[in-house]
Design goal:
Elements (H helix, E strand, L loop, with lengths): L1 E9 L2 E11 L3 H6 L4 E3 L12 E8 L5 E7 L11 E4 L18
Parallel strand pairs: 1-6
Antiparallel strand pairs: 1-2, 3-4, 4-5
Length: about 100
């Protein structure tokens, strides 16, 4: 599987966003993308995690549910390596990569 991302700034914080189309390794990965597994943190287009993660839920004794993530490097269904590639800015752009404002 191959996924690309770019870095940008949201206020003073460096965050990451997925870019371009995904190249899925298997049908199971395609079916579960965005539900059980995905880039960064579930439900957030901008994230501080630049990895592919399994999404988890952790019920607390108070009744609250805490969402969690577990970083993975291989597809849990077919075993293929997950390649996460940073897309750098074009050379004609002004400013550094980290100074770019996010699109979301």
């Amino acid at each position: 599987m191959r996924l690309s991302y770019r870095s940008c700034r949201s206020g003073r914080v460096k965050v990451y966003e997925q870019t371009g189309p995904l190249d899925f390794c298997c049908q199971e990965m395609r079916d579960e993308w965005g539900i059980v597994i995905g880039f960064g943190i579930k439900g957030h287009a901008l994230t501080s995690s630049r990895e592919v993660n399994i999404f988890t839920l952790h019920p607390q004794s108070t009744g609250a549910i805490i969402p969690g993530i577990t970083e993975i490097h291989y597809c849990p269904w077919c075993g293929e390596e997950i390649k996460v590639v940073r897309v750098k800015r074009e050379s004609s752009s002004v400013g550094s990569e980290e100074d770019r404002t996010c699109t979301h």
